[in-house]
Amino acid sequence: MKSALITSGSHEELKLILEVSQKMGLKSTMLSNEQIEELSLINAIKEGKTGTYVDKDKFIKSLKK
User: Fold this and answer.
1) What is residue 51's DSSP assignment?
2) Minimal CB count within 10 Å: which of 1, 29, 30, 61?
3) CA separation (Å) from 50 to 23, 47, 55, 65?
4) pLDDT at 13
5) Three-state SS string across 4-50, please?
6) Blockwise average pLDDT, block size 10, the chain, 65 residues
7) Where are the chain's structural domains?
8) What is the DSSP letter of 36?
């Protein structure tokens, strides 16, 4: 599956693109700013996961430096 992200300053333009894509048989949806932020956060969390344990006290001490 492939995806595309289209950004526009005009709600009407995006609505037209969604209508055209649906007529072409493609699944499409409009995302809110909150949904985009959530997806970005999910992606950042996935990229940051290392699977190794981090000692909480050592981490907090490193932040205070």
Assistant:
1) S
2) 1
3) 43, 8, 14, 23
4) 93
5) CCCCCCCHHHHHHHHHHHHHCCCCCCCCCHHHHHHHHHHHHHHHHCC
6) 88 92 92 92 90 89 88
7) 11-64
8) H
Report if pTM > 0.70: no
Task: Give the separation between CA 31 and CA 36, rounded to whole angstroms.
Answer: 7
Q: So what's the pLDDT on residue 42?
A: 94
Alpha-carbon distances, residue 6 vs 22, 28, 32, 57 (angstroms): 15, 11, 13, 43
* φ, ψ for residue 20, nearest 5 deg: -65, -45
Report whether 33 contacts 14 (CB < 8 A): no
Q: What is the pLDDT of residue 5?
A: 85
> What whole-number distance in Å separates Cα of residue 5 and Cα of residue 28?
10
| Dihedral angle, C-alpha 35, 41, 46, 51, nearest 10 ° | -140
